Amino acid sequence: MADSSIAVTPGSGANVDTRTVTGGDHRQVVCVGAENTTGVASVLAASTAAVAADLPLAVALHPTSPTPLPTLTKATQGTTGVSVQPLRDAGRVSLAYNNSGQNALATGAEYLLMLSRSADGGTVTNANTFVVTAGKRFRITNWMVMATGHATATTAQVTFRMRYNAAGAVTTTSNVLWEIRLIIPNTSLWTEQVNMPLPDGWEIAGGATVNWGLSYSATYVTNAPMLQTMIMGFEY
C-alpha cells in the first residue's frame, strides 16, 4: 500500500495483530506473501520438514535437500559430512618413468635417454619424449639419477638434463629445465647417485603439443659408464 501515517491512541482505534511471547510482551505479526491465507509463506517448526506445496519462502529444508548430510566417500572420524578433496587429487594418475641401466654412447655427444613409462601401474611404454595431457598438470615429486663407472677404472663425467618443448617432440637442443652432473673417479665400478625429492612437487602444464624428456652427455676415455634414472610424479 502507499505510505501513510497512522495515528495511535492508546486503548482505541483499529486492532493490530500481535503475538504474545514469553513474559507477556507482545510482538507485531508481519505477513510475508499475499494478504490471503493461501498466499502466505509458511514458517515451519524446526522439527517439521517442508513439502512441495509450501511456498518458496518456507523456512525449512526442502524435501529434495539431503537430510542428514551424505555419507563420506573417504575414511573420516565421523560417518556423515561434506567431503573436501584437494584439486591435485581430482583425477590423479600416478606416473613412473625409469631407465634401469644403459651404457653411455659416444663420449662428448648429447643423446636423448630412453625411458619406460607406467601410468597407475599399467602397461609400460618406451619413448624418449612424452606429452603432458592437455588440461592437466604433471607434478614431479622425485628425480633420481645414477652413473656407475666401468669395471676397468675410468674417470667419467655425466650430465643429465630435463628438457621441455611446448610445440612438439623433445630434441637434444630443447630448452633445459633441470641439470644434474655426476663425476666418477678413476675407481673400478664407482657409483655416483643424486636423489632429489620434491615434497611440494615441480609442475609442467599440459597441452596437446607440450613434451618433456631427458637427455645426457658423458665424457670419458675408452670405457663408458652405465646410466640409470627414475622419475616419479602424477598428472592431475
Structure description:
By secondary structure, the protein is mostly beta strands. It contains no helices and 13 strands. The strands form 3 sheets. Strands 6-5-3-13-8-11 form a 6-stranded antiparallel sheet, with no helix packed on it.
Describe this protein with a few key phrases.
five-stranded antiparallel β-sheet; 41% strand; Jelly Rolls; rod-shaped
Strand order of the largest sheet: 6-5-3-13-8-11
Going by helix content, strand content and strand pairing, the class is mainly beta
Major pleated sheet: 6 strands, antiparallel
CATH classification class of the largest domain: Mainly Beta
Helix segment count?
0
**Averaging pLDDT over every residue, what do you get?**
84
Shape: rod-shaped
Distance between the termini: 59 Å
Beta-strand portion reads 35-45%
Low-confidence sequence ranges: none
Give the number of domains: 2
Number of strands: 13
Write down the Rg: 36 Å
**Multimeric organization:** single chain
What share of the residues lie within helices? under 10%
Structural topology:
Elements: E1 18-20, E2 26-28, E3 93-103, E4 110-112, E5 115-119, E6 125-127, E7 130-131, E8 137-148, E9 156-165, E10 175-184, E11 191-205, E12 211-220, E13 226-235
What is shown here, in short?
By secondary structure, this protein is an all-beta fold.
